[in-house]
Design goal:
Length: 304
């Protein structure tokens, strides 16, 4: 829409400043590229693409193991003690010692930081993102990736269309409070975790500030009609019949005590650990660079 043009311009400016190949296109060119998309203008990013991140993670694991490193999963760290020269970690069945440790606990990173004695400046509030999928007949409505102009007040992108690597088109996600940190379904509730969210002043300050947006997201969660309405702003030919329920993910969103959504990557340190306290999208895309940053920080710590 016309009122979004300044925001589009700003994204173009940032893209160019970061050497992203992108160009501004008019409504006519948009129609040629995405015949069903609606817009007065758009930013075309020919190099944009998606990947199968499960395959990426598998490959990284394979490369590490080939170099003699070990990867252990299915072991939840339940206790953690930092000493001057080492970190002790315990799962329910095992016990480990390390000279250094890195906390990339995602939805639980703040809890792990607390185990290490840190008092993080943020708490993780879980926001579920629910998707629909276009039915086979409706998939011709989207050729590639179609995004709205993001609202700069939020770190979330808004519902968008994504043509997947293995076929199919996903539409979403919305952003609703999950009633459990790993609340991938609407019915999943963890009373202890929910109580922690509700007891956090940052959650209430955030809710007061954005109650209208939050309510809209909830309506879209329960009403397919409302979800379709949001999608139609981008692709007016989408219909209820052309959509079926898809998967959901949970964002680990760091929120400060005064109710601000942390929208940048956030690292903190304790004696022998580095803690990744906010790694929102696009942290998967940037995983290797974030990894490099962490290794540099660790190298600095070792030489102190
Ligand atoms: C709906 C949705 C869409 C997204 N789309 C994109 C996208 O298009 N592009 C992009 O770049 N990013 C995207 N992201 C964001 C991306 O998924 C995250 O930025 C990324 O996964 C963060 O990585 P992480 O390693 O910090 O945390 P995670 O990937 O959450 O990993 C944390 C790990 O820690 C483990 N863990 C937790 N507690 C413990 C414990 N006590 N002991 C041991 N292990 C523990 C968990 O089991 C998990 O394996 C999306 C996220 C969502 C929810």
């Amino acid at each position: 829409e016309e009122r979004e043009l300044p925001a589009l311009e700003e994204i173009e400016r940032r893209g160019k400043a970061n050497q992203v190949a992108c160009r501004r296109i008019d409504a006519q060119t948009l129609k040629e590229l995405e015949p069903h998309a609606r817009g007065v203008a758009a930013l075309h990013v020919p190099e944009a693409g998606i990947i199968d991140f499960r395959q990426v993670a598998k490959k990284l694991a394979e490369l590490l193991q080939a170099q003699g490193h070990s990867i252990m999963t299915e072991g939840r760290v339940v206790r953690l003690t930092e000493h001057v020269d080492k970190v002790e970690l315990a799962t329910r069945h095992d016990h480990w010692q390390a000279r250094w440790a890195i906390n990339c606990g995602g939805l639980y990173c703040d809890r792990i930081a607390r185990m290490a004695g840190l008092r993080p400046a943020v708490q993780i509030i879980p926001f579920r993102g629910e998707y629909y999928e276009l039915t086979r007949e409706a998939q011709q409505l989207c050729r590639n990736l179609i995004y709205p102009v993001p609202d700069p007040r939020f770190p979330f992108l808004g519902v968008h269309f994504t043509r997947m690597v293995h076929g199919g088109v996903e539409c979403g996600p919305n952003a609703v409070l999950a009633w459990a940190r790993e609340g991938y379904r609407k019915t999943q509730v963890n009373l202890r975790e929910l109580a922690q969210t509700l007891a956090y002043p940052g959650f209430w300050r955030l809710s007061l500030r954005y109650w209208r947006t939050g309510l809209g997201e909830y309506v879209r969660s329960f009403s397919k009609r409302a979800f379709v309405r949001a999608l139609r702003k981008l692709v007016p030919d989408v219909t209820r019949q052309g959509l079926r329920r898809g998967r959901a993910g949970v964002r680990a969103q760091a929120v400060t005590r005064d109710g601000a959504l942390a929208d940048d990557f956030l690292l903190d340190e304790s004696q022998r650990m580095i803690h990744v306290l906010n790694a929102p999208s696009p942290a998967a895309t940037s995983a290797l660079n974030i990894g490099r940053l962490i290794v540099d920080r660790l190298a600095e710590k070792r030489h102190l």
